Here is the input.
Amino acid sequence: IYQPPYMNWASGALRGAPLICKTTHLGDLPSVFANDIAWRQSDPRQPVYRVEMFESPSGEGYLYTGVTHLHPGLIGDEYFMTRGHFHARREQGEIYFGLCGEGLLLLQDEQGKARLEQVSTGSVHIIPGFTAHRLINTGSGVLSALAVWPSLAGHDYAALAQGFALRVVEQGGQVQAKEVQNG
Ligand code: PA5
Ligand code: NI
Here is the structure.
């Protein structure tokens, strides 16, 4: 009987198979946060998020499984978030599952229309093809989410170099979504 790898559903920790891990620090995220002065004053070595995924084969029909652990924090009044991307193969979708922490999934279609979904323990997010996605941590602890996506989907970060059409900020202790002019 094959003993499959497993995930701790409370923490998102992956075990039982080789992993690929990548940490993204504040210094890796130029032009991502609206307040460039606040970003420049921040510690570039501070980790913002870590993605752990099972090492697994890639090819037509194969899926990748990974967990994003996004730290809490603010740059200016804007919450810590992932860079966000479209898939290089635009038609490919993805599923996110909220594991722990509190946050938002920012989705944006190719016409630039953005929307938000609440991410919390057990939430299931079906990201259709042709839809850019970014995680935002609005809570006080780490936000962890499991993702499953086609191995050939790829990442297109350049298409969102102008940013998303919504920014999520803390105002008076409240979470607020603000529409952005020119993305
Ligand atoms: O596949 C996904 O969408 C996630 O695993 C993301 O890649 C992860 O959350 C990191 O975000 P980004 O690739 O936008 O830096
Ligand atoms: Ni993706």
